[in-house]
TrEMBL record:
Pfam families: Hpre_diP_synt_I
GO molecular function: heptaprenyl diphosphate synthase activity
EC number of the protein: 2.5.1.30
Protein name: Heptaprenyl diphosphate synthase component I
Keywords tagged on the record: Membrane, Transferase, Transmembrane, Transmembrane helix
Cross-referenced InterPro entries: Hpre_diP_synt_I, Hpre_diP_synth_I
Transmembrane intervals: 59-92, 104-128, 134-160
Length: 178
């Protein structure tokens, strides 16, 4: 893939992640029993990026999404929570993906991300509250993280298998890795 194509692809994925994140913010809160929980639909783009680009490029997409989403309607505290969750989630997803497609699917990678995102956010909340009691909320958020991770993984898997443009990048990355 040429450098220009790669940059355009990164920009498109980052823009899609921002738009999906903003749209998700506009959706009424689906988990009334778990304040702060959300579906994490922009992680569809993170999963696609992990499977079609390098870790560095995926990190760039996540960073762009975090900064732009904050500038378009976030606060410093939402940035702290989102950034901690996104970075821990991305690292975990990348490491789990390294197990290989015979051991874990994109759905498993996404589910790992869903759980770790909540861990990252609760670590920041614990730090800010100066209390580890916040971590008692982890089982509830983990359950939601598992459900949303499965949904996001299914969507990302569908897109990778059925969108021709993504298939080109996916197959190109597979060929580079073998």
């Amino acid at each position: 893939m040429t450098k220009n194509k790669r940059l355009v692809y990164i920009a498109l994925l980052a823009a899609q992640a921002v738009v999906i994140g903003l749209l998700e913010r506009a959706i009424p809160f689906p988990f009334a029993f778990a304040p702060g929980a959300k579906l994490g639909l922009s992680n569809i783009i993170t999963c696609i990026s992990l499977y079609t680009l390098s870790f560095k490029d995926t990190f760039i997409i996540v960073a762009i999404r975090l900064v732009l989403a904050t500038l378009l309607g976030g606060t410093i505290s939402t940035f702290l929570y989102s950034a901690s969750g996104a970075i821990i989630s991305l690292l975990g997803m990348f490491l789990v993906k390294q197990l290989g497609p015979k051991r874990i699917s994109i759905i498993g990678v996404s589910t790992t991300g869903g759980i770790l995102h909540n861990v990252g956010q609760l670590l920041v909340a614990s730090f800010l509250a100066k209390s580890w009691n916040v971590m008692l909320y982890l089982p509830v958020l983990s359950f939601i993280g598992i459900l949303s991770g499965i949904a996001v993984g299914i969507a990302a898997n569908y897109l990778l298998k059925n969108v021709k443009t993504l298939q080109v990048f996916f197959l190109a990355k597979e060929n580079r890795e073998h």
